[in-house]
Amino acid sequence: MRTWRSLLVALFVALAPLALAQNAGKEAAPLAMDPGTAKRAVALANELRCLVCQNQTIAESNADLAQDLRRQINEQIAAGRSDREIIDYMVARYGDFVLYRPPFKAATAALWLGPFVLAAIALFVLARVVRSRRRLAEEAPLSDAERREAERLLGEKGKRK
Amino acid sequence: MKRAVWFLLPLAAFLVLAAFLFRGLGLNPREVPSPLIGKPAPAFERPQLHDPAKTFSPKDLAGQVWLLNVWASWCVACREEHPVLVELARQKAVPIVGLNYKDASEDAKAWLKQFGDPYMLSVVDRDGRVGIDYGVYGVPETFLIDANGVIRHKQIGPLTPEAWEKTLRPKIEALRKG
After folding, report:
1. CB–CB of A95 and B132 under 8 A?
2. pLDDT at A106
3. What is the average pLDDT score of chain A?
4. Cβ neighbours of residue A54 under 8 Å, at least 6 residues apart?
5. Closest listed residue to residue B140, CA positions, set B57, B81, B85, B90
6. B127 touches A: beta carbon within 8 Å
7. What ipTM goes with this model?
8. For residue range B127-176, what is the model confidence (pLDDT) as tens digits?
9. Of A16, A105, B60, B176, which alpha carbon lies 20 to 30 A from B22's?
10. Is A64 on the interface with B (CB under 8 A)?
């Protein structure tokens, strides 16, 4: 039993580099480009959502589509396109969903402004509650009878001591 | 009276939130609306799967309402939808062009031999560039293209008999009449 287990472990250890090598083949192919261009390509890939995995950027994802889109970015940079043009190219095909930072427009106004509107409402309500409580304290001071009663109670407490 | 309003307000806010969340439960996050609906189908010219010497381009089908079905032999969900396509082809319901996406042509041909070939013809998109132009991100996908070459609908994922009856068929009939 023991030997079997150690044999299995040995097998896995022996095969691990193979699996790693296979994975490595899936990474973006090394790019023959100057550092500035490579930086641009990575920055762009970090702005774009992979539609297959949805919560990864094109830069992070190893999905086939993400690799193809990285290739597109590289080719378009090589062809002299601007960042704006490349982003527009992606949006024209995959929609705003491809952007990690959705643009501000009518359909996304609630998304961008919603939190500020909610915060404003919360502050307004808070201010009103605080003010109405203060008014309550100012408007209803103790009557003379109440004041005497209060003093009597406080005095009794003092005597007991 | 005024007090009642203040107590009801949080309840109302909760109900609105609950309604939004409930709606969210029914939405499929995998279905990203395509910006290509209502736009001309992107042009391409690619070799045909069974006759690589010949090419196909969407303008070859100008004047017809047709389906562009993106498929691959490695795609599991394609097997699920395939009988539906075969049945549509048998009924001659609508011309279907296959876009063989990122596939090896030999595998693709063997796959069609095994499961039946519902396609008028298939186009080879070996490197997936046509797929990118059509915003393909999850095979199978099916585009409905009208007589003017405008994309009218995109079915993401397998074409089910239900999707055909409820969405595609009425749309195709309307396009043919219009």
Report:
1. no
2. 83
3. 80
4. B29, B30
5. B81
6. yes
7. 0.79
8. 999 999 999 998 899 999 999 999 999 999 999 999 999 999 999 999 99
9. A105
10. yes
